[in-house]
Amino acid sequence: MTDVALRLLAGDLRALSQVMSSVERADPEAAPVMQALDAHTGRAYTIGVTGPPGAGKSTIVDRLTELLRREGSTVGIIAADPTSPFTGGALLGDRVRMQRHYLDAQVFIRSVATRGQSGGLPRAIKTMVRLLDAAGKSIVLVETVGVGQTELGIMEVADTVLVTLVPESGDAIQTLKAGVMEIADIFVINKADREGAGQMAAAVTAMQGLAPRQGWTPPVVLTKAHAGEGIPELWSKIQEHRQHLIQTAELEQRRQQRRVKEFVEMVEGELGRRWRGRLANDPVLAALRDRVARKESEPYSAALQLLDSSPLTLY
Amino acid sequence: MTDVALRLLAGDLRALSQVMSSVERADPEAAPVMQALDAHTGRAYTIGVTGPPGAGKSTIVDRLTELLRREGSTVGIIAADPTSPFTGGALLGDRVRMQRHYLDAQVFIRSVATRGQSGGLPRAIKTMVRLLDAAGKSIVLVETVGVGQTELGIMEVADTVLVTLVPESGDAIQTLKAGVMEIADIFVINKADREGAGQMAAAVTAMQGLAPRQGWTPPVVLTKAHAGEGIPELWSKIQEHRQHLIQTAELEQRRQQRRVKEFVEMVEGELGRRWRGRLANDPVLAALRDRVARKESEPYSAALQLLDSSPLTLY
After folding, report:
1. pLDDT tens figures, B105-114
2. Rounded to whole angstroms, how far apart are CA atoms B163 and B219?
C-alpha cells in the first residue's frame, strides 16, 4: 500500500486533502491510492441534501453535523458549488455558517466547484465520497443547490436524499413539480414557522398519493433549522430510511450502480480531457481547428469526419 | 447539394425541423447537409437572453419578436430548457406565452432540453443557430434560464447577450454578484414598475465602474415587458451593440471562436457517446463494468488503466 494511503487510513487529514485534490483533477497518481483504499470502503452512510437556493440546506447540514458529532459520529461534508453568477454569492455566504466545524478534526469539509462540469454532479464527488468513507467518516453529507441539472445527480451519490423546501408566498405548489418526487427519500420543509408551511406539507403528502413508491413513502419533516428544531426527528427518519434500504437490499444495489456510474463518467471525462490536450499540442489538429475557424471547414461534419477516420479503440 | 439542404434554403419548415432533430442527436446524416449550408450562413444576428427564473425572459423574447416581425425581420427562437424539477414547471408555463407566434411561418421556435447535457449550453444549440441562419432567419433569439452552469454558455452562442434582472425586495444587490458583469452586453431590468428598480439600475451602473470594459459599457434598459414598455429602447441598444461589434471586428472574432467551440464540443460529445455505445455492446467492457460493480475492480483506477492501454488516436 502506498504511503499516502496508509496515512489516510490512519486519519491523517493532510493525506486526505491531498488525495481529494488529486482525484478532483483526475491525477493518475491517485489511481494506486484509490485501488488500495477500496477494500476499506462501504461503511460510511451518505446523505444528500438538495433544494432550491435559500431553502436553508447549509443550516440543515450544519445542525445535522452538530447532532452527529454529539452522538460520536465522524462527519465528511462535500458542498457542490455551482458558482453561478446569479447564486454564487448566496452560496458562499452559506459556507461561512459551517466555519465552526472547521475547528473540529472529526469533521472534514470540502467545497467542489461544479462550473463547467458535465451535467449532474461532477464525477469527482463520487470518488471523494469513497475517500471520506475510507478515511473513516461514518456519515458523509453532500450538499447541492438544486438549480439547473445538478439535483438529479444527488440520487447517484447519496444513500438517502433530503429534498429541502421552504414555504414561499404563493410558490408552495410551484416548487413541487414533477421530478422532485422521484428524487426525495425525505422531504424537509424548513423555516416551518413561515406562513404556508402546513399547506406545503399537505401538498407534498397529497402529491405522494399520485406517485406512490414501492415500500417507502418519503416522509415530510418540518424543521426550523436555524433554531435546531426538527433536526432530531429528521435524523430519526434518515435512520428509518437506512433500515429500509438495508432490508430491501436496495442499499447494495444503489452502491453498485454508483460505482459503475463513477467508472463510466471517469472514462468519458478523461476522453474529453485527452482530446482537448491533443488539440492543444498537435499541429495537425490545430490546423484543422483553424480551418474550422476560418470557415474553410464546417464544424459539425469536420468533427464527425475526424472521429470516423479512427474508431475508438479501448483495449 | 442534398435535397434536404436545398429545401431548407428555400424556406421549407419541415426540412428545417428535420435537420434540427438530426443535429440534436448528432446524426451523421446531417453532416453533408451542414457542410452544404455553411456557405449560406453568417447573415443572422444572434441575441442571447439569460437571467434568473421569473425575470420575464420569455416575455421579453415574445415582445422583441413582435417588434422584429413588425419591422419585417424573420425570427428564429431557441429556448434552452433545463427541465429542472424545481423550475421546470415555471419554464413550461412561459412557453405557453409564445404560442401566438407559432402561427407565424416566419417565426421558428424550438425548445432544447438541457438536462444531462455537458456544462454550459448543449453543443447542438450552436449548430441550430447556424441552421436558422442558413434558413434565412435574420434574427436568432436564444433564451436560457440562468441557473447553475448554463448562463456562461450563452456568451459562446450569442452576438449580444441580454442579462435580465428583476427588482426583488432585498435581493437587488444579491443578484449582481461577480460574473454577471462579464456575461452582459446589455442589462435589462424588467418589471421596472416594482419597488427597487431604480435602485437596482443604480447598483448595476455603479458596479460597472469596478469592471470597465474596453469600448463598450453595457447599458441598463428598464422594461415592463408585459406591457411592451421599453422594448423599442432595448432593440435600439441591441443595434448599437451590433454596430460596436462590427466596428471593432469583435463580431468576426466571436463567431470564429464559436465555430471552434462547436467543433471541439462535437468531438468531445461524440467520444463520450461512442464510449457508452461500446460499453453497452462489447462483452469485454461489460465484464469490466461488472467487476467494478462487484468491487473486484476499483472505478477510478480501472478507468485510467482502460484508457492507458489505448492512446486516443484521432487521425
Report:
1. 788 998 887 7
2. 11
| DSSP conformation class of B168 | -
- Selecting from 3.30.470.20, 3.40.50.300, 3.40.1350.10, 3.40.190.10, what CATH number does the domain B41-250 have? 3.40.50.300
Residue B106 is placed in which grid cell? 416566419
Selecting from B148, B180, B274 the residue whose C-beta is nearest the C-beta of A148 gives: B148
Longest dimension (CA), chain B: 66
Q: Residue-wise over B207-246: b if at least 16 C-beta within 10 A, else e?
A: bbeeeeeeeeebbbbbbbbeeeebbeebbebbeebbeebe
- Of B236, B190, B159, B206, give the one whose Cα is nearest residue B57: B190
Alpha-carbon distance A71 to nearest alpha carbon in chain B (angstroms): 31
Q: Name chain A contacts of B119, Cβ cutoff 8 Å.
A: 114-119
ipTM of predicted complex: 0.90
CB B181 within 8 A of CB B207: yes
CB atoms within 10 A of CB B18: 16
Q: What is the pLDDT of residue B91?
A: 45
A30–B178 C-beta distance less than 8 A: no
> What is the predicted pLDDT for the residue at B311?
72
The full set of domain ranges for chain A reads: 41-261, 262-308
Which architecture characterizes domain A41-261 according to CATH? 3-Layer(aba) Sandwich (3.40)
Comparing B231 with B168, the larger pLDDT belongs to B231
CB A190, CB A164: distance < 8 Å: yes
